[in-house]
Amino acid sequence: MVNSTIEQGLNQPQSVANKAPLSTCFPIYPASWYLFCHERELASGPVSRSILGRRLTAFQTDSRKVAVIDAHCSHLGADLGCGKVLGETIQCPFHNWRYELDGRCSHIPSQVEIPAFARQKTYPVVRRHGYIFFFNGPEALFPLPFFANCEPADYTAANPFRFVAHCTWYMTAAQGFDTQHYEAVHERRLLSRPVVDTPSPLLRRNRYRAEVIGQSIFDRLLRQFAGATVDITIENWGGTFICVSALFERAHSRFIAIGQPLENGTSQIEVITYASRGRNPLSRNLLDPLSLRLRRLFTHAHLTGEAKQVMHTQYRPANLISSDEDMLQCFQWLASLPQNRHTPSKSLTPAKADIPALDESFVHRSKIPLT
């Protein structure tokens, strides 16, 4: 295991060490939104992926509705990603069993009666900016997040970039609330005390102002063209879905980072950068692509540089000291997050999902308001 959790260490003050959750307290695969694929990948048929410790299949029907379901057929386990779409159903490649968008088997060639076990687990799905997102659970606990006070239709999205963070998902998430590492790693000097709050149980937010003091080519260009100070807002939804807004004096930068826990204790980070959509065709065709490329380049350098600098960090709760209070509070919040509620065994309960056909249509009613 690349990042083994070490829970033994120096004795620290009781007020700090006793508050730290054990590694076993963190959800293995938090109930949050994850990126599955781009919609164009579904144009030629269903797609299967190994993600979050299981095999899932996404498919798009003739009416352009999209579903994400368990990949292994409830009959004998064939991978539905090797099957094909027929109208509004997906057909298993082994015995031609067909499944509806809600996971229900509606056709078995060899018999009329459909057994109760013939049902696939389904996951809430949202299509946004051409990307397919799914919620890890039978129903979405909160809407697919976006930047506060911003409408997705006003923005355009770049192609994602990916990298592996050699630490657990909760170590990656806590870095957004670790005030000590801002200057040490990012070369950002805090100009005020960060304001950290929890507007809703599944959202933790950090806001601060900082000065760009780095001497890399990217930081020098930032100071020259964007400004030397920046207001940062980090919104962590469900532990693994993070929206970041950086408002410089003369430019804005926004990106979403999604941490996918991997089975070897590391995390795959998928990042989508965004830029304001041009108001006329000329701007959308010429300036928008350039703006996205520049933002993607700077964001890539910033995040991958951090990942290399803090490789193989380990969660050591017994070694947390009083100056780690910001991280400690974040760890406590992360440990309180729900695990997905799909059980390992096949569910015999009819699925309640109503798969959306339109962008930004949510599968289930939100339980928590999006702020």
Automatic annotation (TrEMBL):
InterPro entries: Cholesterol_7-desaturase (IPR050584), Rieske_2Fe-2S (IPR017941), Rieske_2Fe-2S_sf (IPR036922). The keyword Secreted does not apply. Keywords: 2Fe-2S, Iron, Iron-sulfur, Metal-binding, Oxidoreductase. It comes from the Bacteria. Residues 33-134 form the Rieske domain. One of its GO terms (molecular function) is 2 iron, 2 sulfur cluster binding. This is Rieske (2Fe-2S) domain protein. It comes from Pedosphaera parvula (strain Ellin514).
